[in-house]
Amino acid sequence: MVKAELIEEPQVSNETEIVKVDNFPDVDVAIEQWDAYQKLCKGLLNDTDYQEIIVKEKDEDGNYVKVKRHFKKKSAWQKLSRAFNVDTEIVDRDLERTKMGRVREAYYCVRATLPNGRSVESDALCSRSEKGKDKVSDHTIMSTAKTRATNRAIAELIGAGEVSAEEMSAERTVVENKSKFLKEDNSS
User: Fold this and answer.
1) Which residue of 21, 108, 149, 172 is surrounded by the most CB atoms within 10 Å?
2) 112: closest CA among 152, 161, 168?
3) Could you tell me how far CA 81 lies from the centroid of its own chain?
4) Are strands 19-20 and 11-12 parallel, antiparallel or unpaired?
């Protein structure tokens, strides 16, 4: 869940109906900043910070093909968090337990904040019904949900627009699960 607050209404010109924004980024500066981010990733991260995952994607003919992709792992997001001086904190947590008291599903909401005060809240969950999670410890369910929420918050805050490896492993199975958390909110 990303929370945003609109501070000022953008003004619309009656003549052209174009939104006027005072802080529209300089294209050259934006490109320089993106290039700097790419350079930072190449210098800061190494092979151990990535996980190779095979995903299905559509080719130019519309057929699904298996493709190897590399996704940043927790270690990569922690290094980037340190490089950007990002603080993270848990703002919400919920656990669903079985009748025997084991954690069936964990939900975390994490806030990531930059030194200038800009912040993003992101949430994630992990369920024992996900592939490979049926026999793991309660701690693993909880820590995976926390890691997913933290990675997502950092990625959104620094504008990387990337999905973490932990997030990708969840994409394939969470959609199939009948989670109490997923049932509560039918929005995308």
Assistant:
1) 149
2) 152
3) 13
4) antiparallel
Dist. CA 130–CA 105, nearest whole Å: 10
Distance CA 88, CA 148 (A): 13
109 to each of 28, 46, 149, how far by Cα in Å?
35, 28, 6
Instruction: State how far the Cα of 168 lies from the Cα of 166, in Å rounded to an integer.
Output: 5
Q: Tens digit of pLDDT per residue, the chain (188 long)? A: 455 555 555 555 555 555 556 667 788 888 998 899 999 999 999 999 999 888 888 889 999 988 888 889 999 999 999 999 999 999 999 999 999 999 999 999 999 999 999 999 999 999 999 988 989 999 999 999 999 999 999 999 997 777 777 767 544 433 344 445 444 443 43
* Stated pTM of the model: 0.72
